[in-house]
Amino acid sequence: MTLTAGGGFSDRAQSHTTHVVDQLGLAIVAGEYPERAMIPLDPDLEEMFGVSRTVIREAKKTLIAKGMLASKAKVGTRVQPSSEWNMFDPDVLRWHSEQKTPGRFVADLNEIRLIIEPSAAALVAERAGPAEHARLEASCEALAQAGSRTAFAMADLEFHKLILQLSDNRFLQSLGDLVQAALYSQLIAEAEEAREPGDLARSVEKHRAIVDAIRAGVPERARACMEKVVMDAPAGGVRRAG
Known about the structure:
By secondary structure, the chain is mostly helical. It folds into two domains: about 15-85, Arc Repressor Mutant, subunit A, CATH 1.10.10; about 90-230, Four Helix Bundle (Hemerythrin (Met), subunit A) (Up-down Bundle), CATH 1.20.120.530. The protein has helices spanning about 15-30, 40-50, 55-65, 90-95, 105-125, 130-145, 150-165, 170-180, 180-195, 195-215, 220-230, and strands spanning about 70, 75-80. A two-stranded antiparallel sheet has the order 1-2. The chain is elongated, with a radius of gyration of 21 Å.
């Protein structure tokens, strides 16, 4: 077990309940409690974390609301199938992104990116004006000037967030905020996988192609350029049939 015993606060935790939710959520995502398995009884969890039964019950309620647990009287609390989990919940996204071997999560994330980001780029090509073009140029320049792989990943994240913001679609803008933590972890992995000195430079050029298409006002070219960026992501790619 990798659960942190005791009632201490993690950096993110603002309460004992939040700490328990965080630790149990991470353990479930990591497979320490497999799908459909029972989690420990309340008295055992109380002892494990050094907290009251009220804290444990509130933590379980939170995880039930996220679709990760189901509780039944006189039976206990069981881990739900992952298909029931709310993957747009910020905590669930973060717990997945913090796994050392995220596996399918990265492929699923790339699939949703492939559905959303090319369309967002096409919208920006239709709607953006000189001020928006300047912001995109500056974002590309930040990519080019990044002094480390971590800085490159952060600049890459800001570029993709900016595309969603400039789409002028509130749903896309909100979605960008939701996937921020997960996408950052993926982009860190991509930057680390860029072994050759020219890999990051080629990535910059692919992003410049998106900006050029947007500035030219050609939505379908912007869409195609963004598709190429997402499809070429080295950290998992997109799942293929067969």
